[in-house]
Request: fold
Amino acid sequence: MASKSGFIAIIGKPNVGKSTLINALIGEKIAITSPKVQTTRFRITGILNEGENQFVFIDTPGMHKPYHGLGKSMDKSATDALMDADAIMWVVDQTYRRTDEIILERIKHSHLPVILVINKIDTLENKAEIDKIIISFLKVHEFKHIVPISAKDQTHLTQLKETLVEYLVEGPHYYPDDYVTDQTDESRMTEIIRERILYYTEQEVPHSVAVMLESFKFNEELNTMDIDALIIVERDSQKGILIGKNGEKLKRIGTEARKEINKIFDMKIHLSLWVKVKKDWRNDPTTVSRYGYGK
Ligand SMILES: Nc1nc2c(ncn2[C@@H]2O[C@H](COP(=O)(O)OP(=O)(O)OP(=O)(O)O)[C@@H](O)[C@H]2O)c(=O)[nH]1
Reply:
């Protein structure tokens, strides 16, 4: 059998489960997830090698109308992902709405084959509800395939992969077969810290946070890694919220992030977190790109 590979862009509104799906397909945490919208800030590639096939999944930030500098760069990143793709998976979790128009326009404009993926079927009562969603989307576009799934329960993922094989192209693989992502180790670490922050903070705090690695030192002999990370927020009040009473919240975020990083890198991790205020950083393009977003 000849080797095949291809780029599949995952597109959809915020919070429909794109990152959960990519992690379920790859079988490892590539993209952070959270119940808060706009968790994903930049393009993340997840690589799945199965037999002769290599699927390169491009996770994109949920498309939305941008309100600030960071939002604009997230939106551009989602649009750029379409230009490189061989096919698009449009992930949805409810019937077609007016707010889906922005995505519809872009997929039509791309002229790429589109697979409609109806996620979260575990939350639907019966098949009639799935049919209602399908019918609403069939009215607006001619999809190549429609696959109902649950990324959380890993339902129908095999069927989804079988569907996607059709869009891979014969030729050498894009990445070495032991790669699961093209993210750097630094980026995976800071994203895990950001994920924990998203779980433990509310309202405007999650979206005002950036995480940067100050340093990380690997000790081969002891199989340990010392990581110093900086959490940047926009206001003094947010710094207080993050640190919490007697520093308890920051400690909990640090402990859980350390465990997650430990799972990926399989070594003892020492993690120190620091919080710094940088007023209005999301509207400063230089800072947005310095913090690794919008590239
Ligand atoms: N019940 C159920 N919940 C799901 C499923 N897939 C994802 N979720 C939940 O939906 C929420 C959003 O998931 P994410 O994977 O972060 O969504 P996303 O589309 O990547 O979100 P953005 O990064 O904001 O664009 C999380 O709370 C997930 O646990 C599913 O199949 N079933």
